[in-house]
Amino acid sequence: MTVTAIKPDGSRELLGEDALQELREHLRGAVVAPEGVDTATEPRVAWNAMHPERPSISTRCTGTADVVDAVGFAREHGLLVGVRGGGHSVAGLSSVGEGMLIDLSLMRGVQVDPERRLAHVQGGALLGDVDRETQAFGLATPLGRVSETGVAGLTLGGGYGNLNAMYGLACDNLVEAQVVTADGRVVTASADQHPDLLWALRGGGGNFGVVTSFTFRLHPVGPTVAFVGTLYPLEEMARIERAWRDYALDAPREVTSFIVSMTFPAAPGMPEVIHDRPVAIVGAVHCGDVDEGMATLQPLRELGSPLFDMSQPMPYTAVQSAFDPFFPRQTLRAYWKSQYLDELPDEAIDALAARAADRPGPMSLVNTFHLGGAVHDVGPEDAAFAERSSPWMVSFDSMWGDASDDAAAIAWTRSAWQEMTRWGNGTPFLNFTGRSEEPLEAGVDSAFGRNLRRLAGIKAVYDPDNFFRLNNNVLPRP
Ligand SMILES: Cc1cc2nc3c(=O)[nH]c(=O)nc-3n(C[C@H](O)[C@H](O)[C@H](O)COP(=O)(O)OP(=O)(O)OC[C@H]3O[C@@H](n4cnc5c(N)ncnc54)[C@H](O)[C@@H]3O)c2cc1C
């Protein structure tokens, strides 16, 4: 059997049976060539249905040694390489058509050290894997809001979730990482070893190598937390969002909250009152004492006349997976665009409410997230993740089912984003961006700001040939 795979310059490399057999003999995990790839059984297909690209060769690694061999093979043959953690990149950055995929889906191990309050997490773990293991000890680290998302991409891109105000971003809690660099070395990044690399991994994306293990700081959380999920009629969104804004600005650090517009399907298990009904959901978590938390969050349940209220003390793991059913893999086509706002004036809220009423499909979301507390305790140059002062982030998450709607949905998202630049600073959150035709539109320069130069220097040290380029790419500059 021979396989043709693409190189970064677009030319092709013919891989004969000998080469593939040699790789198979080295790897403990499977080496899958195109005819062996079956979407139904593939462990982790990409989430965004706009990115069904198939690699020519996929290496399902079982550990760091497999990753070293996979990197070595790709280097030897000059192949274009993609790295897949959870596969949730909205921009499809872990999809590599006709190249070689380093698939980490079998590397989901999580080990908790309760004494030192640390979790060691393999590079292909999903958020739910970490929450499940850490909660066994009454501990948690800040991650995102959909449990099927990959720890790797989320952390390397920053990582917003329900514990931000109290404990910071996911990347702020990263204390050590094991990385396979472009030359196949295994490097530990920590405060003592390669601290420049640790700084870069804290928000700088997948630019610097394959992270095979993350070590996170843990905090006492749960097992039950106070949760608010109150659904108001979308027509009231402008008024509800004003009241939520005023609440959020004065809320204690235990509270992290957001507001999102969406339309629930008429599915069994969903209360009839919200079937196919556009709603504005006020969502919040208080991660301290549960009774005190429910009392503190109570005003969010009384911002208007709720259609339905899911608020209650809830197991932390249930909160963390509450939105999972609405985000299945390879089902929705998606294009997202976000930006930060230093203020959220009434006019901006009116514009958001108008856009929420005019979404390109029922599954499309208009989100406003409140940011602050521990996220802003970190200085803009203390970690690669530079945005440390804006209290608001808005995100237009367009999701639809039919390819014939691609152009209209993308145009809508761009126009809504453009309108927000009146109040926003134009800086995007790179984890919430769709793939763009123009590299500059992704916003890498703007997202990293003054940190870009330092990141480019670190990239030059660890990946001078830009071997890892399918990411929010930083070009190496010594
Ligand atoms: C439904 C949904 C919900 C989301 N919710 C949140 C949220 O609440 N908070 C938030 O901050 N973000 C959220 N995101 C965004 C998400 O964090 C990013 O899309 C992130 O990139 C996903 O990580 P992943 O490992 O699943 O992605 P992948 O598609 O596997 O990879 C994304 C990027 O990271 C690189 N990468 C992956 N694994 C590694 C590794 N081990 N080492 C080095 N590079 C690697 C890839 O090459 C690629 O460039 C959400 C996305 C979706 C689709």
Overall description:
With 478 residues, this protein is α+β, with helices and mostly antiparallel strands. The chain folds into three domains: 3-103, Uridine Diphospho-n-acetylenolpyruvylglucosamine Reductase, domain 2 (2-Layer Sandwich); 110-220 and 450-462, Uridine Diphospho-n-acetylenolpyruvylglucosamine Reductase, domain 3, CATH 3.30.465; 224-433, Vanillyl-alcohol Oxidase, Chain A, domain 3 (3-Layer(aba) Sandwich), CATH 3.40.462.20. It has 13 helices and 21 strands. The protein has helices at 17-26, 64-77, 127-135, 151-156, 164-167, 195-201, 237-250, 290-297, 316-320, 346-357, 406-420, 444-448, 451-462; strands at residues 3-6, 12-15, 31-32, 57-60, 81-84, 100-103, 110-113, 118-122, 139-140, 174-180, 186-189, 210-217, 219-220, 224-233, 255-263, 278-286, 308-309, 312-315, 333-341, 365-370, 392-400. Strands 14, 15, 16, 17, 18, 19, 20 and 21 form an eight-stranded antiparallel sheet that branches. Helix 7 (237-250) packs across helix 10. It is globular. It starts with a strand and ends in a 16-residue tail after the last helix. The mean pLDDT is 94. The structure holds flavin-adenine dinucleotide (FAD). Flavin-adenine dinucleotide binds at residues 47, 82-90, 93-94, 104, 123, 144-146, 149-150, 152-154, 156-161, 206, 210-211, 327, 431, 470-471.
